[in-house]
Amino acid sequence: LRVRVRLPGGQVTEESLQADSGADCVSLELKAADGALVTLTADFRQEVKIFRALILGELERGQSQFQALCFVTRLHRNEIIPSESMAKLRQKNPRTVRQAEEVRGLEHLSMDVAVNFSKAAQLSSHIHNVCAEAKEAIYTREEDVKFWLEKGVDGSMFEVLPQGSDLPELQRCRHCPDRWKPCICSYSLSIEWYPCMLKYCRSRDAGGKVSSYKCGIRSCQKGYTFDYYVPQKQLCLWDEE
């Protein structure tokens, strides 16, 4: 399914939504206003969601063509509609530019743990495909790790990253004057339009019995900001004042 959505700056972009009810996962992809390609994959079976950003590099500043980041967090119930409902979505007017009905609050996440790519398939089989370009840059949070460890996931794939409290001299990258020093990077992304809830309507039969049935979706927009440790500011050139 492809939908046209409006970005905050007013430009229109195309978003693609895919659902695999067999694997019980959904994914959506859109091009952000700055040219970054943003993907969200929701793995309902493992209760994992994976954000991937492919960010255009600044070649004139010594960066590679693009930089890939992966942020892996816990998927909560009712964050996004189930895969079988997503698979059935159709749109009557493909030319319509969609705007989300509900803006959900910005979530600010401190990604304080690195995930080992070669062991991550146990957390979610999708990490292997989605994060292949971001092998050295897969991040998650300690509180999500605790939840997954309780489910029996192998803890050896996680490594706690240096924190500001361990290294008092660790600055935010935007305040760090030296491009080769470690710092705390910030990256923001937004999912402009996604089906977040099912709508139910009621009907009465001839005997007056009321029943409810699915009769549509509610769409949401949600922004995320991720803070995470980088070994040098050169890996975080967008985060400048």
From TrEMBL:
Residue ranges annotated for the Out at first C-terminal domain, each copy included: 172-240
Specify the Out at first protein BRICHOS-like domain's residue ranges. Answer: 1-148
Tell me where on the tree of life, at the top rank, the source sits.
Eukaryota
Among Pfam families, the record links this protein to: OAF_C, OAF_N
Please state which protein family the record places this protein in: Belongs to the OAF family.
* Name of the protein this chain belongs to: Out at first protein homolog
Question: Which gene carries the instructions for this protein?
Answer: Oaf
